[in-house]
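Let us work through a complete example step by step.
Step 1: write down the sequence.
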Amino acid sequence: MKHPYLILAIILMVTLLLIIDRMDLKNRRMQDGSDREDPPDRMLPEHKIANDKLIVAEGMNESNLKKMLQDFCGWYNPEMLQIVPMVTKMTDLQFVITFPYDVPFEIFCFLVNYLDYPKGYNKRFNVAGWATARSADMWVTDDLAGKQVLLFVSDFDTEYDNVFMTTADQIGYKLDFGGRRAQLLEHPVKPYQMPLFTTEDLEDKETVAVSYKAN
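Step 2: predict the structure and record it as tokens.
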């Protein structure tokens, strides 16, 4: 072979590019949204969409939560709006997040995971989400459709890329972000409980302004 070193160099270069690409794909979910361009205001939906998705986040202060949500929205909203969170302040360290224009179920799950493991914080926060599963949702099978579900990250999680789900009839599942179907568990990690707040509880509370675009 006339050019063994050239061939070896090409192989090493291709391997290095594949490794870099895989690392970039893994880290995109956690990247800061501040380098994203703002989507135009006209992309805001004209009408609100009725839904019961709700997240209760505890342990972070208002400014920290706003930064977490801005980073998350900056990653998912660069070209089209997929998530427009509305934050209601219950106490200085407890907030309710709702979605007046609805949000895809998988992004809702990603947000539950992200707020539990936010970038730049050396601690976890107490986060739980509630929704009604729909047949068109990712991970949802026919036997799950129509059920009210609780979504959370396990206290014992070491994989950092999933959420756990318990239905109102106390059936537990693991939703792996790398998979397409919910994994049935022998026992739920946490029992289902009703949402801590209802929409009526939010009516007279302070609303926190959160940018759905990156600054």
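Step 3: interpret the result. The radius of gyration is 20 Å.
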